[in-house]
Sequence to fold (748 residues):
Amino acid sequence: MPKVVDHEKQRAELLDGAFELFADRGYAALSMRDLARGLGVTTGTLYHYFKSKDVIFEAMVLRVVARDLSAATAQLSDDLTSRERLQLIFGWIVANQMDLRRVLLLVFDFQRHKGDDQASQHLVAQASASYRREFEAQVGLGPGAWALVLGGLIQGLLEPDLDDASDRFKALEQLLFQGPPAGASLN
Amino acid sequence: MPKVVDHEKQRAELLDGAFELFADRGYAALSMRDLARGLGVTTGTLYHYFKSKDVIFEAMVLRVVARDLSAATAQLSDDLTSRERLQLIFGWIVANQMDLRRVLLLVFDFQRHKGDDQASQHLVAQASASYRREFEAQVGLGPGAWALVLGGLIQGLLEPDLDDASDRFKALEQLLFQGPPAGASLN
Amino acid sequence: MPKVVDHEKQRAELLDGAFELFADRGYAALSMRDLARGLGVTTGTLYHYFKSKDVIFEAMVLRVVARDLSAATAQLSDDLTSRERLQLIFGWIVANQMDLRRVLLLVFDFQRHKGDDQASQHLVAQASASYRREFEAQVGLGPGAWALVLGGLIQGLLEPDLDDASDRFKALEQLLFQGPPAGASLN
Amino acid sequence: MPKVVDHEKQRAELLDGAFELFADRGYAALSMRDLARGLGVTTGTLYHYFKSKDVIFEAMVLRVVARDLSAATAQLSDDLTSRERLQLIFGWIVANQMDLRRVLLLVFDFQRHKGDDQASQHLVAQASASYRREFEAQVGLGPGAWALVLGGLIQGLLEPDLDDASDRFKALEQLLFQGPPAGASLN
DNA sequence: CATGAATGAGGGTTCATTCAT
DNA sequence: TATGAATGAACCCTCATTCAT
Fold:
């Protein structure tokens, strides 16, 4: 059944291309026409492979989440201390922050658009939990640490000119392993 | 004389109502017709008070930011330790987390829709910086602390069923003032 | 009845101001809001003096037509040759061509907008005939001559950069009094 | 393969139909909805073939100009005197005066609506110049002659009941080739 | 007299989607 | 399998007009 293989492969390629376009423009602002043109196909072709815009978006988000997750953990070996793991992970996060922010925005977009659909919301929670659990398992820290990572990414989204993300994540690392700087809690 | 209407007061009331509606549906998904209907006026009236949908949204964001800021700091007096301040602020954040998350989503939505418009992006950065600076001033901690707050909110957005937000913010407080739990860094 | 006098005077002043605005923008492109603002009043005031936009436009066109007619013939005395009269008239036309073109455009606009209304069309024809007859009486030439004047104005409208209107009207004068240049009819 | 439609041919047919509708109602007064209905399509289809209302209008004007030009000159052969050419052309103008007047009104309408847009003004000048140059080339007369033609058309617009257009153009022909009637310049 | 708030139909345009080919 | 023509509802916004004050 070679047809089926081609079909799935074509779907996958379209989804990869769709990520770049959706990530740049968001769900609502990217029309099917523009999406098709950006992918080098026609709208008819798009509808041949996917039932609707929603379906494309949903499948694309799930695909990207899975892809990032495996990429982030690929470099970690077992014989590292948790702090070394954290440094590697933070390094990867800083290096890929642009992509990660795009994914985050995409997820919020998705949540917005499918606010009533419990199944979709569950998918988001599931994907997010995958990231978080993997992170916690790798660095051996409690739930607070992951919030820090999310916050670091978001802050860069909200105030892009504030400072270097690299510095921000170094501060976070220190906070996580050495506690707050002395004197910080003085009133 | 015209119909007796306080123009500014009417604008303010429309903006307050607009927040509820935008927060529920998002920028793109809330049409001007629906917004007008939700506010109990007609589209013509909306355009009598505001030049465009963008203008409504921007004015509303600024208003909400100002309102939240004064509400969050109203309860703080000068003779508190920074940890006490943090506890009060975290308490307020937890109590108002639903509202804060809605604001965050709204801001991301807006950023998406106005990706090319530098002025709009600046508005977002400005509002975000207002929150952050006020927080840093109140608790006397460095930039990493604010990322933690953001992260705590976002995590609740992504995984609403994960745990009680109250617990999460207690853990963050401890992290900020006492450092990581002993043994956490053991591999 | 002083009220009535003021009322009529106010109407007249509004109409004079309306000419400048309608002439610049045309009937369709000038909104009642802009018209009111341009006149320094509110839309309510406008509707106090005139029943509708159509009524303002109609009254204004008729007023302008009457005003121009008397202005053009005011300077002519009886003891001039017809060629001298023509030169004076052409001079006046060239000097006032901008205004005349605006009136012409206004009339076309009017015709468009009131195409079904026989009474209005008749008013335009009547005003136009007044111009034409006065011209013919003054210069003592047949009906073809007036077409030349109209054509000269229109050509400037269509091709503003073509040449100087003054030259064009000099050529027309020569054509009317000395016939076509020799050799023009050679094939 | 898509539905078999010759894109260019369909565009052309839509433009031809658009002329009739625009000529009857004018640029501003004919809505895209009415235009579509008049053409037997939907607005979506219209926007499939043309980017905007302006584009439709501009393409239509150019098309009509080209069509009229070739129709007017089709009957002219090289071995005619310039006066014979003029007679043929005037005959064609008189026969098609209704159409020509509609084109003129349309152009004025357009000029009005797009007063600020230099490109549009250029289109008008270009179309007008095409007519004028062709006329001058055919009859071998100077620029004044064309003003006469325009004037003749306009006069018919302003005073439709005045006289027979045929008579008017005969008078113009005589004026152009034989000069003014004797005694006309006597005072 | 005069104001300007309010209306809601209608403007040009875009869009996700369908379907004949 | 793939095309792109066609649809028509919905988008943001403007408008002439009305009316309570």
Notes: Chain A touches chain B through 58 residues (CB under 8 Å).
